[in-house]
Amino acid sequence: MSKAVRTGKWFVQGDEAIAEGAIAAGCRYYAGYPITPASEISEAVGRRMPEVGGVVIQMEDELASIHSVGGASVAGLKALTVSSGPGISLKLEGLGWGIKNEIPYVVVDVQRAGPSNGVATRVGQGDLYTVKYGSAGGNNSIIALSPQSTQEAFDLTIECFNLAEIFRTPVFLLTDETVGHTRELLVIPDESELKIVPRFKPTVAPEQFHMYPMDTPGAIEHPFPNIGEGYGICVSPYTHTSKGYATTSERDQDRMAIRLTKKVSDHLDILTRVETHYLDDEAEWGVVAYGGNARPALAAVNMAREAGIKCAMLRPIIIWPFPDEEVYRMACRVKNILVPELNRDGQLSREVARAARGQAEVCHLGSGGVEPHLPSVVLSEIQRMTQ
């Protein structure tokens, strides 16, 4: 058995599956700071990383952690950091540095009830907008994937590392305490069955290489040379030219902003992934949910259908960029869409309503978190919606 890929069947938590997925994807550097409900990832990585020759460092705080993984990635290592809401808020300044310099690494956010420290070990879904808009200055598009199970925690962690390399950007695994602490079956396939994307290397001489493809802003799979390989690498926090040199030009600022948005927005064909249930079965009512809370939502949809209610469900797997067209198509087919989520400010509901473009009424079923929604509660709202 490969030390990097522990092929077989395992009964583990989602947090442990994330650690295994990261190592299987080639991650060899981890920097973090303890925080529940993400600490089990740190513990699992700490046990496993020495077996594959990797490095694990507990930094002095979250700010140091995010900058550390950025530096490790620039030096050529696939890198990971994890946290929960309060720690993610501290990482956001460093995240902007990674986004602007197009540095590939993965950030895991195991959401808990908030705001602030909230209820440290219990579930919430209040970070949807944090990962999208939290980094200062905007002018970028983020990629975030959200698992609903231990198996997906493993699979999507690998996908996060692949997308980080393809799009040269930090990528989020936006999970939650329910998924992180759910212990269930994980099946890890043989290493030969895993698709692992390596780092893309320059094929031109250093003097011909442009670190940032401003002239082709939608380009992906653009080479990322490591420090020490003879290529000029500029990774300052300031607006840069295609060579990476700092500039105060309005034109250069706009070109950089266009690059950081278009490299994502031009590729929605590979950045749109949803799971649907019963949408082709003349559905009249819809439910949209994500992450761990999608599981009781689907149970409620199944219960509704048993009661004769023609209800369908859509679950975003890639949550950013948001699957606008898929939600719009659902909205064109149903009368109302119920959105159960573990926050009271309606973050997912607002995105669903925006994407629905008035084609269906969107109903928010909120909760402050701590406990996931019960299927019976979601079913009651579906029944109320249909009256």
Shape, per Cα inertia axes: globular
For the record, give the distance between the C-alpha atoms at the N and C termini, rounded to a whole number.
57 Å
Task: Tell me the structural class.
Answer: alpha/beta
CATH superfamily of the largest domain: Thiamin diphosphate (ThDP)-binding fold, Pyr/PP domains
**Roughly what is the average pLDDT, rounded to an integer?**
96
Q: What is the chain-wise order of helices and strands?
A: EHEHEHEHEEHEHEHEHEEHEEHEHEH
| Main pleated-sheet profile | 8 strands, mixed
Q: Give me the number of helical elements.
A: 12
Helical fraction = 25-40%
Low-confidence residue ranges: none
Tally of strands: 15
User: Might you state the CATH topology name of the largest domain?
Assistant: Rossmann fold
Beta-strand proportion: 15-25%
Counting copies of identical and different chains, the oligomeric state is single chain
Query: What is the number of domains?
Result: 2
CATH top level label of the largest domain? Alpha Beta
Rg calc = 21 Å
Structure description:
With 387 residues, the chain is an alpha/beta fold. It has 2 domains: 1-271, Rossmann fold (3-Layer(aba) Sandwich); 275-386, Rossmann fold (3-Layer(aba) Sandwich), CATH 3.40.50.920. Helices cover 36% and strands 21% of the residues. The strands form 3 sheets. Strands 2, 3, 4, 5, 6, 7, 8 and 13 form an 8-stranded mixed β-sheet that branches. Strands 10-12-11-14-15 form a 5-stranded mixed β-sheet, sandwiched between helices. Helix 2 links the parallel strand 2 (27-32) and strand 3. The longest helix is centred in the middle third of the chain and has 18 residues, at 150-167. The termini are far apart. The relative contact order is 0.13.
